[in-house]
Design brief:
heterodimer, A: 340 residues, mainly alpha, two-stranded parallel ribbon, 16 helices, 1% strand, B: 192 residues, two-stranded antiparallel ribbon, 73% helix, globular
Chain lengths: 340, 192
C-alpha cells in the first residue's frame, strides 16, 4: 500500500463530523485582528513594490552579452595609457640595473661634479676588485670602517696652522718628521714619475690621494702635506692622464698596492706608514694586493704587520678573497698569517 | 486552492509584486483555517488572535522570497504550527489550555452549545450537542495527536504534509492521526 492510498489519508466519518461542526461554529477572529493584518499587508505591499523597482536594474548582464567585451577592452586601454603616463612622469631612480647598456643613464645626469681623475673612461670589464662586491663577509671580520669610526675623535682633521707648519717642513726636505713622511714620499715619487714621463696616471693618483689624505687626515700617520703644491703638481700631470679606470682612494699605500708598485709600497712601509691603512671603501693594501694575486706584495705587507682578517665595507677580507679566487699558495700564506 | 481563477501561489506572487488586494483575497480564503487550528489547540481567544497576527505578518514579510515549490496551504500551516509550538513552549503546562485569561473558550463553547440546544429545534439541538462533544473530545487529546487531527481535518493536509509541517516522519504522523481518531471515538462514545 502506497502512502497516497493510505486509508488514514482519506477523510473518514469523524473528519466529516468535525468539518460539519466547525462550519456551524460561529467563532471568528475579530475585525480588529483582520484590520491590523490588512494594514500591515498594505505597508508590506508598498515595500515590495519599491524593492521590485529598485531591484530591477540590479540584474547582472548575461555572460553572453557582448557589451562586456567592449567595457573590458576600454578598461585595458585606459589602464595602458595610465601606465605610460606614469612611466613618463616618474622621477628616474639611480639604479644601475635599469640601464644595463652603454647609453647615458639618468644616473649620469644626477652625478655630482667630479675631478679630472675620476672623469675617465669606465672600464670595459669589471675588475677583480669590483667582482668581489658580492662576497659574503667573514664571520670574524672586523671592518676597517668600524674601527675608524671608533677612533674618530683621535683622528680629527688637523687645524690649518699645522698645514702651514707642514709646508715649511716639506720645504726643508730631509728634516721632515715621520708624521709627514709617507705623503712627502708619495709626492716625490709622483714628481719623479712625472718628470720621467713613465707613468703619469700613477703619479697623479698618488698625488690625489695625498691631497685627499691632507683634507680628511684619515690616520695619525698621514699628516697633511703642502696641499697647494701637490695640487699644482697634480694639475701639471693632468695631460698625462690615460684611459685607465680610476678608483677613489685616499691612502697612498692602497694606491701603490693597486698599481702593483712593490718598490713604492716598500718605501711607504719603511717610512712608517701603517700597513692597515685603508681607502674610502675600507680596502686595505693587503686586500688589494690579494685581489691582484700579487704574492710578493702580500708577503711584504704581512711582514709589515698587515692583518688578513680586516674586512672592507662589503665584508670582504684578504683571507676570504684568497680562498675564493686563489692562488692556493696565497691562501695558505694568509692562513698562516692569520693563525701563527 | 483556487477561488475566482487565482491560485494561492499566484496570489502570493502578485502580493510579492506589491498588490495588496491579492493578500486580502488570500487572507479571506485561509482565515478560518488558520484561526481554528490555533484556537482549538490553544483554547484561548486572546492568544489565538495574537498568534493569528504573527502568522499573517510573517506571510506578508516572506512574500518577496516565496517560491511556489509546495502547496501554499502547507507552507501557511507550517508557519502557524511553528508559532503554536513556540507559544506552547512559552506557556507553563497547567496554563496551556484554559487557565489563561478567563478560562477555557472550548468549555464555554460546549456550555453555550448545550444551552442553545435547549432553545433550538430537536434536530438542530442534537447536532449542536454532537459538535460540542466533538470539540470537547478534541481538547482532551494529547497535543501531538490533536495537531495531527486538526491539520488533517481543518487544513486538509495529507499524511506526508502533516509530517512535513510537524517535522516528523511519515509513520509518526500516521500513528498520531490514527491514535487521535481512536481516542476521539472512545471519548464520543462516552458522551453518547
Amino acid at each position: 500500500m502506497s502512502r497516497a492510498d493510505s486509508d488514514d489519508d482519506r477523510a473518514d466519518e469523524l473528519t466529516e463530523r468535525y468539518r460539519a461542526a466547525s462550519a456551524a461554529d460561529p467563532a471568528r477572529p475579530s475585525d480588529a485582528v483582520r484590520e491590523s493584518i490588512f494594514a500591515y499587508a498594505r505597508t508590506a505591499a508598498v515595500d515590495h513594490a519599491t524593492q521590485g523597482m529598485v531591484g530591477a536594474p540590479r540584474r547582472r548582464p548575461a555572460a553572453n552579452d557582448p557589451s562586456w567585451r567592449i567595457r573590458a577592452a576600454a578598461s585595458v586601454i585606459v589602464a595602458g595609457f595610465a601606465t605610460l603616463l606614469a612611466w613618463h612622469l616618474r622621477v628616474p631612480t639611480p639604479s644601475p640595473q635599469q640601464e644595463p647598456h652603454a647609453s647615458p643613464s639618468p644616473r649620469d645626469a644626477y652625478s655630482p661634479p667630479v675631478t679630472e681623475t675620476t672623469v675617465s673612461a669606465q672600464p670595459s670589464e669589471p675588475s677583480r676588485v669590483e667582482r668581489r662586491a658580492a662576497a659574503a663577509p667573514a664571520p670574524n671580520a672586523v671592518t676597517t670602517r668600524s674601527r675608524q669610526r671608533a677612533a674618530a675623535p683621535a683622528e680629527a682633521p688637523s687645524p690649518a696652522h699645522e698645514s702651514t707648519a707642514d709646508l715649511a717642513m716639506v720645504e726643508n726636505g730631509p728634516a721632515a718628521s715621520s708624521r709627514q713622511a709617507p705623503t712627502v714620499i708619495a709626492g716625490r715619487v709622483a714628481a719623479e714619475n712625472a718628470s720621467s714621463g713613465s707613468s703619469g696616471t700613477e703619479a697623479k693618483r698618488a698625488l690625489e690621494n695625498s691631497i685627499a689624505g691632507a683634507r680628511v687626515a684619515p690616520s695619525p700617520s698621514a699628516a697633511p702635506p703642502n696641499v697647494q703644491a701637490l695640487r699644482s703638481q697634480s694639475q701639471s700631470l693632468a695631460t698625462a692622464e690615460t684611459a685607465r679606470p680610476s678608483v677613489a682612494t685616499n691612502s697612498p699605500l692602497v694606491t701603490a698596492a693597486e698599481s702593483g708598485n712593490l718598490q713604492l709600497v716598500d718605501q711607504l712601509l719603511r717610512s712608517g706608514i701603517s700597513a692597515e691603512q685603508s681607502d674610502t671603501r675600507g680596502r686595505t693594501a693587503l686586500l688589494v694586493a690579494t685581489l691582484r694575486g700579487d704574492t710578493a706584495m702580500v708577503r711584504r705587507l704581512l711582514a709589515a704587520g698587515a692583518r688578513a682578517d680586516v674586512a672592507d665595507e662589503d665584508g670582504d677580507t684578504p683571507l676570504a678573497a684568497a680562498r675564493r679566487q686563489g692562488p692556493p699558495e696565497l691562501a695558505r700564506l694568509l692562513e698562516r698569517a692569520s693563525h701563527p | 486552492m483556487t477561488d475566482g481563477g487565482d491560485t494561492d501561489e499566484a496570489l502570493m506572487l502578485r502580493f510579492a509584486g506589491g498588490e495588496a488586494q491579492a493578500f486580502e483575497k488570500l487572507y479571506r480564503r485561509h482565515e478560518l483555517r488558520v484561526w481554528r487550528y490555533l484556537q482549538r489547540n490553544l483554547s484561548n481567544r486572546a492568544i489565538t488572535d495574537e498568534l493569528m497576527q504573527e502568522v499573517w505578518f510573517s506571510v506578508a514579510r516572506a512574500a518577496p522570497g516565496y517560491r511556489p515549490s509546495a502547496r501554499f496551504t502547507t507552507w501557511l500551516l507550517t508557519l502557524a504550527h511553528n508559532r503554536l509550538v513556540d507559544a506552547l513552549r512559552a506557556t507553563r503546562p497547567h496554563e496551556r489550555l484554559s487557565a489563561v485569561a478567563g478560562g477555557s473558550d472550548a468549555v464555554s463553547l460546549v456550555e453555550q452549545l448545550a444551552a442553545d440546544s435547549r432553545t433550538e429545534p430537536p434536530a438542530r439541538a442534537q447536532s449542536q450537542q454532537h459538535a460540542a462533544a466533538l470539540f470537547a473530545a478534541i481538547e482532551k487529546l494529547p497535543p501531538e495527536q490533536r495537531q495531527a487531527f486538526l491539520l488533517h481535518a481543518e487544513g486538509d493536509l495529507t499524511l506526508e504534509e502533516i509530517a512535513q509541517v510537524t517535522r516528523t516522519s511519515f509513520e509518526t504522523a500516521k500513528s498520531r492521526l490514527r491514535y487521535a481518531r481512536s481516542k476521539l471515538r472512545q471519548l464520543l462514545q462516552e458522551y453518547a
